[in-house]
Amino acid sequence: MVSTMALRKRTLAPKPFSEEPKTRKSSRSEEDYSDVCCENCGSGDRASELLLCDKCDLGFHLYCLRPVLVAVPKGSWFCPSCSKDLKPTGFPLVQTKIVDFFRIQRSSPSEEKLSPDSRKRRRRNSGLVMAKKRRKLLPFNPSEDYIRRLEQMATLATALTATETLFVNELTYVPGMAPRSANCSSLEREGMQVLSKEDAETLSQCKNMMERGEWPPLMVVFDPLEGCNRFTVEADKFIRDLTIITEYVGDVDYLKNRENDDGDSMMTLLSASDPSKSLVICPDKRSNIARFINGINNHTLDGKKKQNVKCVRFDVNGEGRVLLIASRDIRKGERLYYDYNGYENEYPTEHFV
Which residue of 29, 133, 146, 163 pairs with 112 in a disulfide if CB–CB is 3.0 to 4.6 A? Predict the structure, then answer.
């Protein structure tokens, strides 16, 4: 879908470290690994990018994996075959535990149904003619069944727990990183589109619904063959074009502080004329479901056809914000994908599934 909403690139992924890849702790000497070859291409070249599985000791080039790894991962790493046996333990489907995990406002059983007010506003905002004419953003439409919403939340809690990530639903400003005052949209090099008052109200409505436990109809699915974190996201209900999927959140930091960071999920927040003032969102410690939505292979036609979400940066009350928005109607069961690069091709996606 083409619109005045400029697609923005995900931050340039850092180059793989030149250090030797991590190997499993073993009594074997360094020389014993000299004959290791990549299981995918059969070559032992470029040893600094040859990664050993911590379970089976087989080798794989970072760039031969699907999806490709852009850097040697921290801690233990398991190849796709071994990962199939390492499916994370599901988060308990217990209401109190889920409510506490996401810090949801507690409600009585009679309040667990969707509020009439939010349903009324959602119907008014999502009229077909109005949406097509004014291109307004739409709030997500939660599942009616409260138990189903708990199941959706449990899948996200499972993914966040497995990746040792705390749940947040707003940008976070941590001492030692960029202060909130640094997030000034007027510093954007090419200017930043201002989110209209009506769309800002829709975004606020989405945030308020989530605080009440009215969750976006999304499931986080474990898939060792897709996604840098071995998780991906799929629609659990029909999602209309221009629906707000989520906001991309995490710790805000200066890009200059992250140039050698091995994280592969950093998102550009502010691209300033003065590079020292450029900002990125780092979701490695604190994040939400946005971290698990995967990118397309924008080097192939089939890859481009998979895109159903767009990433857009907005000026919201003078601050930069990043929203993930449905770029077309999304069917139930369809996985969500967006272009990590936008108009520029700097993020290495040629090996994405």
Answer: 146
Strand arrangement, sheet containing 267-270: 251-254, 279-282, 267-270
**Residue 251's beta-bridge partner residues?**
172, 282
Label residues 316-340 b or e (16+ Cβ within 10 Å = b). Answer: beebbbbbbbbbeebeeeebbbbbb
Query: What DSSP assignment string belongs to 258-275?
Result: STT---S--EEEE-BSSG
What values do phi and psi take at 98, rounded to 5?
Answer: -70, -40
CA–CA dist 188, 27 (Å, integer): 53
Structure tokens at 30: 């360094």
pLDDT of residue 106: 72
Overall pTM surpassing 0.85 (yes/no)? no
CA dihedral 152, 157, 160, 164 (to 10 degrees): -170
Residues of the chain with pLDDT under 50: 1-31, 110-111, 117, 120-132, 343-345, 348-351, 353
Residue 212: closest CA among 279, 153, 160, 163: 153
